[in-house]
Each structure stands twice: as structure tokens, then as C-alpha cells.
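look at this fold:
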Amino acid sequence: MRASLFLLTGFSLLMIAITLVANFGYGSDFLGAVSAVPLGLGDKLGHAVLFGTLALLANLATRHRFSILATAIVTFAATADELSQRFLTHRNFDLLDLVASLIGIAAAATIAAVIAQRSQSTAHRENDFDAKGTTRIAGK
């Protein structure tokens, strides 16, 4: 859990840094690289990947115990980030950016649920064997 919490903290700080750079208008050169993605989808892909990664790390850091809360917090952050752009001179609100962020979050929540399900089924299978590796028989 420590590793996933460390990754979540580091990635959260990176997201805050990216947001601050963009909010103050210093990211045009750095963030301009997303325009190299064909069909102008770089910005949308960036939203999906960044917020999806944040949601996945949040789910893994909570060890799936608070996955709904972790996903809700990341969803709130993505929504607040996009809505706040209406009030900033260097940023522009774009509903499709928010949709892309939410798609990334939903994909991450799905991946986290699959990981949780697989880890639970692995734990159940491990409990079916005794210390010598032989299969336990029910009732014995």
C-alpha cells in the first residue's frame, strides 16, 4: 500500500503542477505538444489519461475499500478544474474536456474493479489449500 500511496501523492503533485502552469499561462510551449496528436485529440486524450491515471492510483491506494469515494473525489476534482476555467483568463472551459476526463475516470474505475475482483478470487483460491499445498476438503 505504501508504494501505491507514494505514487498517488507524486502523481497528484504532478497534476497540481500542470494545472498551475496552465492556469497562469506558462504552459503554452509545454502543453502545446498535445497539438501534435492527429485530429486535434491530444487535449482530450490528455484529460482522459491524466484523470484516469489519478483515479486508478486513488483506487489502488485505498486498496479498493473506498473505491467509490476515491472515484467521487477524482470526479469532483476534474469537474472543479474544468468549471474553474470559466473564470481564468489563460484557460477556456470546454465541456468535451470534462467528458474526456470523466471517460478516463470511468475506465480507471472499471480497471480497478477488475483488479479488485481478481485479487479477491486469488485470495479465495489460496485459502482452498492447506500449508502443505494439498486441497482442503469441505468439513475436514
